[in-house]
Amino acid sequence: MNTVIHPTATEAVHFIKVHHTAKPEKTMLVLIGDCMVEYHGRARSLLDWGERLVIIKQDGTVLIHQPTMREPVNWQPAGSICEFATKNNALRLFCRHHRPAEKMHVTFRALQLVTVTSLVDRATLIISGMETDVVNQIVNDPRIIEEGLRIVKREKTVKSGAIDLYGFDKDHTPVVIEVKRSLATISSVHQLRMYVTDIKKGNKESRVRGILCAPHVPDMVKHLLQEQELEWREVERHVVLPDDRQKTLKEF
Question: Are 80 and 94 in contact (CB under 8 A)?
Fold first, then answer.
């Protein structure tokens, strides 16, 4: 990593040329300073003077951030071409992109910092914590619910919606399983009850089991389940980490 503090426009251009311009695809450039931004493309915009963070990534993505908010106030997509120059003691950044055709001019009248670094990141984002995680656990090992359970259908469509899991227990009794990723609620009970009613198809005497699965089932919900002749299982969700270790949410 190379950094220069409070450079003049001429010093900044020289620094960028030495440490970034030769290999822009291998280095990330970060500038902090008082700048103005002009954009021409699918629309036109002018962002007046203000202190901002400008990031030029190794794939040519350009991001301009104000001191607040998450999203950049201006940006250019990957593949953008960036050039630097000086004019009237100001550093000028020219960004252009061909498809779609657009360009952005950033003028710095004062610079606080310019940094060039190279980052290596080959990791893949793994999203966990969804209801499908619990569903997959049960499908892969139905014994989580009970011995002898067979899952025969995911997302079984009925009149009132889609049942998360549908199967049969060891006595060949139909089983409806509703999965929640966090706290089980009263509405979850009503949803499960409607699914069971749909499976019975008007035959109230037929035997169909309904099981609500969640990491935690409050006592109030358990009482309502019992009143509706439904069941519950508290199933702890596991997060699969890249190194194949597993943790439950309680371990974080």
Answer: no
Domain termination residue (choose one: 68, 89, 117): 117
No. of helices (H) and no. of strands (E), the chain: 4, 15
The answer to whether residue 243 is domain-embedded is yes
Look at the chain and report how many structural domains it folds into.
Answer: 2
- β-pairing verdict for 28-40 and 102-117: antiparallel
Question: What is the DSSP code (8-state) at residue 215?
Answer: S
Identify the three-state secondary structure at position 137: helix
**Residue 14, Ramachandran bin (φ over 0: left; ψ between -120 and 50: alpha; else beta):** alpha
Distance CA 252, CA 247 (A): 8
**Residue 193 CB coordination number (10 Å):** 20
Torsion angle of the four alpha carbons 115, 120, 123, 129, in this order, in degrees rounded to the nearest 10: -20
Do 112 and 151 lie in one domain? The reply is no
Digitized pLDDT (tens) for each residue of the chain, 252 residues in all? 999 999 999 999 999 999 998 888 899 999 999 999 999 987 889 999 999 999 999 999 999 999 998 889 998 988 899 999 999 999 999 999 887 789 999 999 999 999 999 999 888 765 555 567 788 889 999 999 999 999 999 999 999 899 999 999 999 999 999 998 878 899 999 999 999 999 988 666 689 999 999 888 999 999 999 999 999 998 876 544 445 444 444 444
Evaluate the omega torsion of the peptide bond into residue 100 and state whether it is cis, within 30 degrees of 0: yes
According to DSSP, the β-strands at 231-234 and 209-214 are: parallel
Count CB-CB contacts under 10 A for residue 102: 17
In a domain, 89, yes or no: yes
